[in-house]
Fold this protein.
Amino acid sequence: MGRMLPERLADLPTPCLVLDLDRLERNLERMAARCRKLGVRLRPHFKTHKCVEIARLQLAAGAEGLTVATLEEAAVLQEAGIDDLTWAFPVIPPRMDEIETLAGRGSLQLVVDSTAGLEALAARGVPFRVWLEVDPGYHRSGLEATDPLLVELARRLSSHATLRFEGLLTHEGQTYHTPGREQILAAANQGRDQLLDAARRLRQQGLEVPALSLGSTPGMSVVEDLDGIDEARPGNYALYDFTQVALGSCTTAECAVTVVSSVISSSSAHAVCDAGALALSKDPGPGWRAGPAFGEVFADYDAARLDPDLRLTALSQEHGFLSRPCPVGTPLRILPNHSCLTVACWDEFLVVRGDRIVDSWTIHRRRGPTWTGPGSG
Ligand SMILES: Cc1ncc(COP(=O)(O)O)c(C=O)c1O
């Protein structure tokens, strides 16, 4: 059911996902300039937008390659001719066939934090570029700087016949835990220092550590000193969202993605709009806020002003509950809590400059392998 794109934002059917190109371009330029100033290469994370057009803009703004979260993202970028990629995720042992195929097609750098991960790669007997993941204090994946396994894995990689040691990589996700510039700076410095400490320990053992890579949007928004670090991998900064506003990484004037929605029902207590969990995701937003809210609403988008008492208070699959009554038909421009998860709900961005619709860009959100064989049709 293809439709001609209308010329103006006000004429769009709802719900839809809108990308503000002016804001996006400014965000890409600002982070590229920050990385140049801090003396690190920029390898933005594709998982935020999953959009080849945005990846190309990031490369044009000075990025030296892309980071991906899934093998599907790597395949999409390779097909688009972008093949300097890091899959910043511990390798998945049951997917070694696909890993080998993708790594054979372009420069795909891989990550391990375990003996089993390293051995799964070694068992293939083909060349792989491998990073070791360090836990920066976020305690998700990665080895602590003091873990003897880190030295052992680095030693095995350094002298391996087919695996090449690329360096140490981390994601300082603890920068999301507390709002405020000083608190984020402390968390970012902690992550950086854990990475530097891990490298120092390996170097003390006579091991060469070719490069150090880190990255988070809050951290990269405030960090002042990245001496000794080679590469940064922020992702969310391209679009930002309400969580980043609440943290203090950006302002509402920098948020580049909104869900455009309409009020479809209203009672004396609340209203309902056509943006539910499959339009916004159920991300509850900043963890330190009293009670979850699932999206803020702009009172005036151009003035970057949020409505102080209108927000999404609950979501069902396609319905969004609003905090106060509103006339049916009222247009809403919703600022998502977490743009990466919101974008992954949609198949395309409607791209606007001001109130003019200039394009539509595909969001490559496929998950899992593409199957062929009996029954695949
Ligand atoms: C491994 C890794 N690197 C980089 C990033 C980018 O972080 P952000 O989205 O805060 O920019 C993430 C985000 O989750 C990540 O998991």
